[in-house]
Design a protein that fits this description.
With 110 residues, the protein is mostly helical. The chain has four helices and no strands. α1 runs antiparallel to α2 and α2 packs antiparallel against α3. The chain starts with a helix and ends with a helix. The model has no long low-confidence stretch (mean pLDDT 87).
């Protein structure tokens, strides 16, 4: 059982590494938020669950923590993205699609 927990924790570490690489490499706030949200959510989830499997006495506590992260991390990153948009931080020049621009134009027309 310990080997399974270590493999799951290693998968989490790989997700966390790839998320940090994405935050480092991507061009603007919104792309970095996506990399940070997806990879850190899955990375933290798998790492914490892996620790819970390695140490069975902690399993239920780690499950609650992992569930809390699954709920709060995407919501907090959405709030950061929305605040960035309201602050006027624009997309990178390389970005092709801006769905919020269409929505703002529609809202102005009303």
């Amino acid at each position: 059982m310990e080997v399974i927990g270590e493999i799951i924790a290693l998968i989490g570490v790989i997700f966390l590494f790839l998320g940090s690489l994405g935050v480092f490499r991507l061009p603007d706030v919104y792309n970095r938020l996506q990399a940070g949200t997806k990879c850190t959510t899955f990375g933290a989830f798998f790492t914490i669950i892996g620790v819970g499997i390695i140490e069975p006495a902690w399993f239920w506590k780690t499950l609650i923590i992992a569930f809390f992260i699954l709920l709060t991390n995407p919501i907090s990153n959405h709030a950061i993205g929305k605040a960035s948009r309201k602050a006027g931080i624009s997309l990178c020049d390389k970005s092709v699609v801006d769905k919020t621009k269409e929505f703002r134009e529609y809202k102005k027309a009303k």
